[in-house]
Structure formats: structure tokens, C-alpha cells
Amino acid sequence: MICFSKKFLTSVFNVTTAIAAAATLALPAVAHAQATPPYLASFPGFAPALTPDMPGDVDIALKQRLERAQEFSKVQREFDLNAWQMFLALNWPTNDQGQSAPRIEDTGFGPPHWTLWHDSSSIFQAKGAVPESCGKPPQQRQFVLSRNLAAPVSAGLPAFRGPNEASVASRSTRFLGVISAVGELNVSKLGGDIQQAFTGPLIDQNGNFVFYEIMIDPNEVNYLCDNKLYNINGQVAFSTSGGKVDMPTGHPQQNWSGSFELKLAWKVIGGTGDHKDDPSRFFTQRAEIIDQGDDGKPVKKTVEVGLVGMHIGHKSETSPQWIWATFEQIDNLDVDQVAHPNLHPSFFDPGCPLCTVNVQPQTDPNTRLYPRTPVQASRTIPIPADKVALNREAQAVLAKLGSVWQYYQLVDTQWPTAPSSKPSAWNSGLSQAVSNKPGGQPTPVFLTNITMETYFQSGNQPACNQEENVPSTVTCPPDYPSVPPGGAIAAYTPDPPIWTTPLNNGGAAKPGISTQIMATESCMGCHSSAGIVTAYDPQTGAKKTAGQLSADFSWLLSKKAQFAP
């Protein structure tokens, strides 16, 4: 992460909160009149009385009080508690009528609430077909109880079901085929040097691919259906007619309001001997997956999968750049082998201290198959101490209830400190060209999930790797420390070689194209790059997008949508 001192962060916060406070003063008075939600009853601690309520936003009145008092760490805690409440509400047992169980440990009542949502492949369909849900009135899109599996879950894969048995109950079974958290990589598209791909698969310590899916809430589905944004044709028509993507916004006085996108990472539960998984420490479901067979071709399997990662994105009144909360299963990278001698981390081998970390796997040059060598994953930015403390409080409450969610942890919550702040230009200088790339002055600057952004944990790198809209004419040097002494390609002269303080030892901030900085990825920064399709050539498959911010922070429009011939 860029080296910001606490003094510098405080000074930035003083400026940005003034902007934020001015903006929030213009909010409707009703937004400030809501009662304190139960999840904040023990603020800044974790409230032990759990509820299934999904907040439409953080408590604005509390946020404003804390901002006026310049208690930045407590504002962050409010967003972190909001993140935990979203996590609990999404995973609360819920029946087919949308009713919540009396207690979170009542798992027999029904699967988690999010299983009532729409799988992204059911909305963004093969050959741009109109989704079945879009042919229904909005009130019938609230609860998804079955799924049509006659179409593939990802382009190039076989369908899970034939036309005669296509519709199946889907709340307790996952149907998985995507093996990259970014894009539509699946086993039909493997081959060659995967390191040349945007991002490759993650292979766990048992030698299995991690599978991914994205769920969309009914509010966003209604918006996509109403504006025909589920295929490229609709997006081109929408954009050329002057339409601007503006997903529904959540409000603090209205539970379950606003757009939600949920990304899930699943590992196959299995292993043998010292590498046998303990399913009691995972939220598990039956799954039908499409894996790579011994001959390299797709093969269907029925397995048990355990949840290892969950991204929650939520657009709200205080956060038009969305609130981004990310959770992981606690055994992903480390276990207490004194207390649990039979456990092992899912994505790290403590017995291999020399193993390179966060390196994308490669196919065997002779067979073109994956040898299933585990990826050694490592977190570049540690989970902050305040999050560690909050997680312990939440886990203690859940442990008393015997809930499996005691084995999950919040990595961090990203939100905009100054929502009206525009994105900083790529050549505007450090640190803003990187830290405010998406606009909104996000905090923390970087946020990643080890199961989803494994290969975005590169650390030291040229600033141009993290800046938006850098022209193709600008040459970006290789990552440090591979740059030889004096070998960096400086786009500006003089250009400080290493960023060491917010003002680089007191000097004026330079554009810093080749300056070495510490960076990973950012949920807000990455999603700000998502664009809506503005033109498409059916003959070549070439498409153009409107660029940064044009898809309102959703990659689904450009990554999942297909053309309807």
C-alpha cells in the first residue's frame, strides 16, 4: 500500500469530510430520522443480539456526528459493522417465501437469503437471449426458486441439463463452471501460457480449481430488465440514445434497498491424510461442477463445495461509488496447528517456505493440461488490527450460537470519504492518480480478497500499472525489483524512483509514471473501470465500451453480456 502516515490521512480526511458533510446536508430530512439500527446497539462494539435486517445504508446521523468530531476510525468502524450486518443478513436462513428464520443457527429453516437471488448467468444469457425473469412482472422477480439449466453457465461449456429437464430447484445446489474471479475463464478455454491471460485459475492445496459465481439482487435485476441491459444489443441502444447507467440506490430507512452484487468463491471439499478438509468449518452445499478431465475436455462432477470467499458490493445514498465489503473463510492462509493439528490452510503450504507466491499456474507444455500444482497464495496487505479485533467479537457471538459463520472473517470495507470527488487523471501526479483513481476518495485505498484477487497482490510496481486511462504510447517499466539500476523508463524528468512518503521527502508530487509504489488492487478502483458497450461488430466480435464509470461500477455489463444475432 502507498505509505501514508496517520497525520497525512487525518489531513486528507479533514478536507474530504468537509466535502462529504456538505453533500450529506443536502440529503432528505427523513434520512436522518431513522432509529438506530439494532446492529449498532453496542457501537463501536459488535452487538450480540443478531438480526436478519439488511440495512439500505449506514446510519447517516451517526456518520455525520463522527465526521464532525473527526473520529475517522469510528466512521470506519461504522462501515465495518455495516459490512458484518450485510454478511449476516445475506447468510441468514430464509424460506422460499422470503421469511427469515428466528435465529441464524436455524439452518433447517432454509438456505441463506442470497440463494433467492438471480445467478448472473441466468440474466446474461448465451447468445444474448432475453432472460426468463425479464418476462415476468417485478413482484415475481423477488424470489428465484428454480433455474433453467438448458443454457451453459459460461460460454463454451456444455449445459448441465437438456431441454426436457432444464428447470430444477436450485437453492441448495450450486451449478459452477467459471474458474476465474475476473472474466469468463472456464475449462473449455484453458491452454497455452495462462500467465499471458488477464487472470488465471486458483488451485487449492488439494489440487482442485476454485469456482466462482456472481449473484444479483432483485433491485438490480429490475433495472437491467427495464433498460434491456442484459445483452450487447440493448446496451448499444441504451448508450446511443443517451442513457446513463444509474443502478438503484439504497437508503438507511429502507431495508434491502439499493443494488447488490455478490461474488462467491467455492473450493471442492476433499483431500486425504494431512490435507483432508474439515467440512464443519465451511458453509457447504452440494454442487455440480464442470471440471477439466484427464483428456483436457470438460467433465461434469457432483461434489461438495465450501465457501472460501464472499465479495459484497452495495450502492447506497452515502456511497454512490458503492460500499465494498469482502469476507474470507479463516483457514484460507493460516491455521493454529497447535490447537488444530489436523487442519491445513486451503491456499498456503507452511512446509514450503521457498515456494513463490501468487504466481498463476501454467499448463503442461506436452499435454496442455494443468498438472494441478497448488498455488502458494500470500496476502500483501495484512488484515488491519481493528478488523482483527472486530472479527473476534463477531466470531465469539457466532461460536456461542454454534453457527458455521464463526469461521469467517471480514478482510476490510471500502467506501468513499468524499463521494462528490471526481476521478483523478492518470497524469495528475501521485498520490491522487492512484489513490483517487475511481473518484470518491476511497478508504482504504486498496482492498483485495485472497481467493479472488490472488494475482493482483504484486506489491512494488510502477505507478502506471495502477493509473486509469494511461495512453498506449506511454511505456510502463517492469515491476521492481526487476528494474536494473537506472533502468526505469521515466515518462517525466525528474521522476522520483521510489515513493517513500506522501510528499516524497518533502518535494513536490511528480506525475510519477515510472515511480515505484506499493500497490495491490482496489474493489472501487477496479470496478470504476467497468464500461457499457457502445458499439459492436457481429462479424469480428469487436466491441467498444464507453470507459470508466459508464457502467456504474458493474463489470457484468461488459464481461457477461453477449450479442443477440
Automatic annotation (TrEMBL):
<protein>
    <recommendedName>
        <fullName>Cytochrome c domain-containing protein</fullName>
    </recommendedName>
</protein>
<feature type="compositionally biased region" description="Polar residues">
    <location>
        <begin position="418"/>
        <end position="435"/>
    </location>
</feature>
<feature type="signal peptide">
    <location>
        <begin position="1"/>
        <end position="33"/>
    </location>
</feature>
<feature type="region of interest" description="Disordered">
    <location>
        <begin position="418"/>
        <end position="442"/>
    </location>
</feature>
<keyword id="KW-0732">Signal</keyword>
